[in-house]
Amino acid sequence: MKGIKEVGPSSPRGRVKSGPVPAYRPGKKWEVGSWKFSPSASAASGRAEMGGKVVFFLLALAFSLGSCGGKSPSRQFLFLGHPYDWADTSRVDPRLERLDYSPYEQVWLGGDVCARTGRKAGNMAYLDSIFDFRRVHWALGNHDYEFGDPQAILAYLQRPSFYTTWEDGFCLMVLNSNLFHYFAEGPPQQNCAEKQAQLDMIRTVADTIREASHLVILHHHGLFNERKVDEKGDTLKPFNFNPMQARATCDPASGLSRLVYPWLAALQKKGVQVVLIGGDMGMQAKSFAFQTPEGIWLLGSGINNSVDPEYAPEYVKDFSPDKVLELDYAPQERKLSWRFVLLDELVEGRR
Hints:
This protein is of the alpha/beta class. It has one domain (33-347): Purple Acid Phosphatase, chain A, domain 2 (4-Layer Sandwich), CATH 3.60.21.10. It has 9 helices and 16 strands.
């Protein structure tokens, strides 16, 4: 990204961004659903607090910025799913350490960034030095959320685990899919208020956005898997884990397909293109693009070439060259496009 310059080791971030900062800049209070997150308080206590009224700063921004004039240049984003190094639980794939991120305005992380992201104290500073968190959106994966302290990750990021933000023409939603329940037995009665707040956020955004050309939803786990049925009637299973009938809250009747999908389908029918991008991929497939009958796009991307095929677990099936997902958004044309590109060629500058 232009405007990034290297600074000395005394900087806690390792990089300073001299260009315009995104809406999630440090120090801003986020309020999503009833999930209130104060960066300063969280950094001090290591935990976020529940409370506050339903406020989506997206909505005010959408009405104030959605019809602004002036020509805006095309914006480029890079999505990286499941990028951890199989040889080191505290590092990313070594190629990502060498990749030039300057062409991208933002980096979108699809989770499982390290195999044990929250376990080692220096992991977040290491990742920040590579990606520059001030221009990152991160949908936490199970390897980020379950190994170590997820609240320490959120305190470093200075944002909640799920939120929605306005992106100069489209709406970007980041989900914490770790809060969903993917198994046949009833959902555990834990973190119920937080789970409900995330569901309320989805519903409120789906019901109220008007100016956005797209709703882009970043997540980790494969969602709406029962709807990924091809023309032959076969259910596609491209994600590392492809559960059916996931539930959103502590309520056994809170199935994502039953509740959430109709909200998104209704939004799609109103003319807002819905695009979901998941990052728990790489073991069964490296890339995935599927459009539902309602017109919703379900995308996925993930890598795994750092695993040694000779010692790979039996559940790793795809050893083909890794691909990552590049996206372009043209604000004036209100168009979002994407392509899957070979990671090796991207690193070596052969594109």
